[in-house]
Amino acid sequence: MLENLFIQTFSVSVQMALLLLPLFVTDRWLTRTFSSQAKCFLWLVFGVRLLIPITFMFPLSKGNATMQGSAGTISSAGSQAAYPQPDVLSQAFLPSPIPTFDAPIKPFYEHLSLLEGLALIWIMGSICFLFAHIGLYLFHIWFLKKSGESSLSREQSILLEQVRKDMHIRRDIPVRISSHAEGPMILGLFCPVLILPQMELSQQQLVFIFRHELAHYKRRDLWIKWVFLLAQSVHWFNPLAHILAKKANLDLENACDDTVLKGKSRLYRKEYGTVLLEVLTEQSHRVPLSTNFSGKKKEMVRRFQNIVHPSSKRNGHILIVCIAAGLILLTSSLNPASVQALNPSVLSQLKAARTTPEERAATKALLTECLKGSMFETYQPFRDLPLTDENYQRCEQAEESYRSLLEKVSPAMQTREYTNHPFFLAVDSKKKGEITSGLFCCQADNQVDQGQIMLIELEFSDPFHPEVFEIGTAFACQGEQLNQRYFQRQSEKRHIQTIAEQFQIDLSQYEEAFSTVYPSVIQNQAYLLGGSIKKQLAQMGRYSFEKFSLNHTWAYIKKDHTEGVLFNQDGNGIYAHFFRMGAYTDRSKISGEENWYPIIENRCIPQ
User: Fold this and answer.
1) What are the transmembrane regions (predicted)?
2) What is the DSSP letter of 34?
3) Which residues pair with 554 in a beta bridge?
4) Dist CA 436 CA 517 (whole Å)
5) Which residues pair with 604 in a beta bridge?
6) How many Å apart are CA 527 and CA 405, to the nearest integer?
7) Whole-number Å distance between alpha carbons of 503 and 423
8) What is the mean pLDDT of residues 535-548?
9) Which run of H or E residues covers position 132?
10) Phi, psi (5° rounding) for residue 487?
11) What pLDDT is stored for residue 262 in this prediction?
12) Quick check: 433 and 495 in contact, CB under 8 A?
C-alpha cells in the first residue's frame, strides 16, 4: 500500500515538475501579462494537484493501450541473462543487497526491499517536514500572543473598526502589540489574531496596515498557504514544489496589494508603498503560515514598483484555467500512473521488489519440481526466456492484469490471498510464434510451508482481460497426478457443458462461482452463494425430493454480473436454479444469507 502510494506520488511529482519548469522560465512574461490574482489561481491549481496522488486517464482503445504499455519495453531476444535488461526507472527500484547485522536487526533488513525503504524515507521526510513547520507555527503563535504587551488605544480601535466595516468584514479580529514582532501579520486559521510591532505609527500608516492585513484575511490567504505547505510536505524531495510555494507567496502579497489599491490614486499608492517598504525593511525572517512577508531586496523593490507604477494586465482567469487544465490532462493522458497504464516492465519489477531474490528463486525451483513429468514440463517463467518484444510485453501485461485482479479477493478468504509471495506467468519454452496462453503460478498463505503451488491456466489473446481455467494445487514430484487432475477438470467441464446444453444455456457467457480465481466472482465477492441457494431450496417444499449437497453442485455467474445458475444432479434428475445477482455493495446491506442471491427460476429434467 505504502509503496504504491509512493510510486504514484513520485509520478505526479515528476509530471508537475515538467509542467512547472516552462511556467517558471516564463514567469516574467506571465507577471507582465496577467494579474497577480490570476497567477495565484494558477499556482493554487498546481498546489492542489500535487496533493492528489493519482493520475487521471481517459479510456483507451486496446490498440492505444497496447502501444502505451509497450513504451519503454526492451527486447529480450537473444538475452542470456535471467531477466531482460530493465529500463532506468525499473532498475532504480530493483532490490539491492543490503548488509546484515547481528540479530535482531537482521530479519528486518532481510525483508526490506529498496522500494519499501524509499517509501519509508519519503513518508518519514513528509511527516518531519510538516511537523517541523507546524511546531514552529504553534511556537510563534504562543510566543507572540504571550509577549503581547498591550492592545490598541481607543482611537486606534475606532480606526480598526472603521476599516473593518469599510471592507465588509463582520468578524471582530483581536489585536496584540508585541515588541518581538518584526512586522504586522495575522496568525491563526480559526481564531485569527492581528499582531503589530511595537513602533510609532501614524493613523494613515495604521489604515494602510489594517487594510492590507484584513485583505489577507478576507481573501483566505492563510488557507491557501496551508495548501502549499501540505504540497511541500508531500513533495519535500522536489525542489520545484518549494519554488512553487515561494512564488505563490509573493503573488499572494501582490494580489493583496491590488485588492487594497483598486481604484486608488497614484498619490495614495505611493504613500501605501512607502509604508509597506518601511515595514518590510524591519523584517529579517518569515513566520510560517502567517501573512507576514519577508523577501529579498529585489523582490521588495519589484513589489514597490508594482504598487506605484501599475500596468494594465489581463485578468486571464479563463486562459489560466485552460492552460492549467489542458497541460495537466495532457500529461496525465500521456503518462498514466494507474495499474493498467503504467509501463508493465516498471510495474512488474516494482511488484517483484516486495519479495527477496531468495524467495523468488525458491518458488522457481518448486515450480520446476511440480511441473516435472507433467504435460507442462517445458513451461518456464517468461522472464527467463528469450522472447520477442511483442510476446514479452503481452505476457507481462497478462501477468499484471491477473495479479491485480487477485488482489481484490475478500480479506476474509485468507487462503486465496496471493499478495505476499512470488508469482510467475510461465509459458511454453518450446512455443514458436505468438504466445497467447500460459500458467499463472502463485502461492496462497497456507501453501508456502507445505511446498505447494497454485496453477491457473490463462488464455490472453486480450492481455488486459485474460480468460481463466483453474487447474488446482500442484505438488513437487507429482507430475502424473497433475496431468490426471487437469484431464479430470477438463472432463468435468465437458460434463457440465452437456448439462447446460440440456437447459439451453450458453456456458461461454458464465464463469465458475465456487472458485475464487474467476474475475466476475472476485469482483462480486460471490463466495457464499451455495449456502444461500441451499437455504432457499430448503424452504421450497416443491423441491423437497431433491438430494442437495454442495459437494455435487456447480455454480456459474454471468460475466455481465446480472444473474447466475446453480446445477445439481441426483438420482431423480438434473436441476438448474437461476438466481439474481445484485451489486456487492447492495448485498452487504441485506440481512440473511438466504436473501443475497434470490432464486428467480427453477428447472428440472427428470431421469
Assistant:
1) 6-26, 38-58, 119-144, 316-334
2) B
3) 567
4) 19
5) 575
6) 15
7) 39
8) 68
9) helix 114-146
10) -70, -30
11) 80
12) no
In degrees to the nearest 10, what's the CA dihedral of 31, 34, 35, 41? -100
The closest alpha carbon to 439, from 481, 478, 474, belongs to: 474
Helices 2-25 and 317-334 sit at what angle, rounded to 10 degrees? 130
- List the strands of the sheet with 379-381, edge to edge: 379-381, 424-428, 437-442, 452-459, 467-475
The DSSP output letter for 507 is: G
As a whole number of Å, the CA-based R_g of the chain is: 33
Cell of 189: 486559521
**Rounded to 5 degrees, what are φ and ψ at 172?**
-90, 110
**In angstroms, rounded to a whole number, what is the distance separating the alpha carbons of residues 315 and 313?**
7
> Nearest Cα to 566, choosing from 523, 520, 507, 525?
507
Q: Among 455, 458, 454, 443, which residue's Cα sits nearest to residue 396?
A: 458
Task: Choose among 207, 164, 214: nearest CA to 192.
Answer: 214
Between CA 192 and CA 220 the distance in angstroms is 11
- 50 in Cβ contact with 12 (< 8 Å): yes
Using CA atoms, how far apart are residues 438 and 459, in angstroms rounded to an integer?
Answer: 7
Tens-place pLDDT, residues 318-329: 666 676 666 666
Gap between the Cα atoms of 122 and 236, Å rounded: 8
Residue range 290-315: mean pLDDT, rounded:
63
Q: How many residues does the chain have?
A: 607
What is the residue extent of each domain of the chain? 355-501, 505-606
Question: What value, to the nearest 5°, has the Cα angle with vertex 344 and ends 558 and 85?
Answer: 145
Cα–Cα distance measured from residue 195 to residue 316, given in angstroms and rounded to the nearest whole number? 34
Give the residue with greater pLDDT, 306 vs 176.
Answer: 176
Is 135 or 181 the better-scoring residue by pLDDT? 135
Q: Are 157 and 125 in contact (CB under 8 A)?
A: no
- Three-state DSSP class for residue 425: strand
Beta strands (DSSP E) in 303-409 are: 379-381
Q: Hey, what's the torsion of the CAs at 175, 178, 181, 184, to 10 degrees?
A: 30
Beta bridge partners of 558: 510
Backbone angles phi, psi at 127, to 5 degrees: -65, -45
pLDDT value at position 380?
A: 93
pLDDT of the residue at 174: 81
Contact at 8 Å (CB) between 506 and 497?
A: no
The Cα 240–Cα 21 span in angstroms is 8
Distance between CA atoms of residues 598 and 578, nearest Å: 9
Alpha-carbon distance of 43 to 34, in angstroms, equals: 13
- 3-state percent helix, strand, coil for the chain, nearest multiple of 5: 50, 15, 35
Place of cell 487544465: 325
- ∠395-396-397 over CA atoms, to 5°? 95
Grade residue 300 by pLDDT with cuts at 50, 70 and 90: low
List strands edge to edge, sheet with 510-512: 510-512, 553-558, 563-570, 573-580, 599-606
Q: By C-alpha distance, which of 491, 512, 368 is closest to 439?
A: 368
Grid coordinates representing 30 are 506571465
Residue with cell 524509499: 118
Q: Tell how strand 185-187 and strand 175-178 pair up.
A: unpaired
pLDDT digits (tens, 9 = 90+) for 11-58: 888 888 888 888 888 888 887 778 888 888 888 888 888 888 765 554
